[in-house]
Amino acid sequence: MNKVIAIANQKGGVGKTTTAVNLSASLAATKRRVLLIDLDPQANATTAAGADKSKKNICDKFFENEELSNCIHKTSDDYFVLPGSQDLIALDVAIRENEKQGYLKKLIKNILNLTKNNSNKETQYLLIKATKKTITDELNEIDTNNYIYEIINTEEKPKERNIVVIKKTNE
Length: 171
Known about the structure:
By secondary structure, the chain is of the alpha/beta class. It has helices spanning 16-29, 44-48, 58-64, 88-97, 103-117, 132-139, and strands at 3-8, 34-38, 73-74, 80-82, 125-130, 148-155, 163-168.
């Protein structure tokens, strides 16, 4: 079974990138197949994963109809990343203007199906690093009957260290 884990918060500096990259690398170190999708226009998770921001990314898939497999890149830590870029701002606008709401949800379903059809390369963990708005607008309707879906909401507590809250919506 695939596990979809979304790491989201609207505020910056609360540990989304650190959590996403370290969790991806840790899972990969235990021989699990991991794909990290960076849906943040700053693309800090892409940089931290060691992926080149100039490589094909999710925006190339949308705007240039690039093959999805050409947009996914292997990291030196043995996990895969679908890079983010500044163009995600334009993607957000294009999705709304072209009435393509649900595009990211469909893309993630395609990724899960793509990896499932190639059984020896099935992604076991799909981590999505995004703003909370992206998660609520686009990804909150992932079919939880077929996938375990968790939202990790990083929060900042006054005078305390950052904590990670894990909410399971389905097991």
